């Protein structure tokens, strides 16, 4: 590890500490889990025509509970509204198409868009990891004038591209095969555990890429 980076950052600080994300990643999976449970129970104990509606009702109920908890925890109102809106749109899509698996269409599409967006940001030399960390640290775009940081953020951003590609490699075949229950389980399994691995791996890449005498993420040099 680079001693310069380690001295420049408070003890124990890393990308997970800077960016957080554990609670958000877990909360985002709960409505989908509610949908799968409601849908599966309705498939077994209720008329077949009710299953999607019951699953959507369960997802929306869980989303409302999550929103209330987030509001009490003083989460940003915009994030709460967007979370509710995403679940509502997913429910509308499933109800309109009549295919249970279409509830997860937005999840599949958003991961494809994220993979493309992160990869494109690296190509145009505005790696999204640098943009996000720069905003969190109040640096705006000063990090981009540091060639070493620009290089490190670019390399580490590929880890995030890989995260979305891993999800797509699992989600797309299940979606095309209309494996609703399996897709719901995969959605949960590839939430926080994969995010945690991505944060740890990209942090390792950052520290390995920066030269030993670099002052660290908090101190971009011109």
TrEMBL record:
Keyword Transmembrane recorded: yes
InterPro entries, A to Z: UCP010219
Superkingdom assignment: Bacteria
Pfam families: DUF3159
Keyword terms of this UniProt record: Membrane, Transmembrane, Transmembrane helix
Keyword field contains Transmembrane: yes
Coiled-coil region list: none
Transmembrane regions: 48-69, 76-95, 115-137, 158-177, 189-206
Protein name: DUF3159 domain-containing protein
Organism: Virgisporangium ochraceum
Species classification: Bacteria, Bacillati, Actinomycetota, Actinomycetes, Micromonosporales
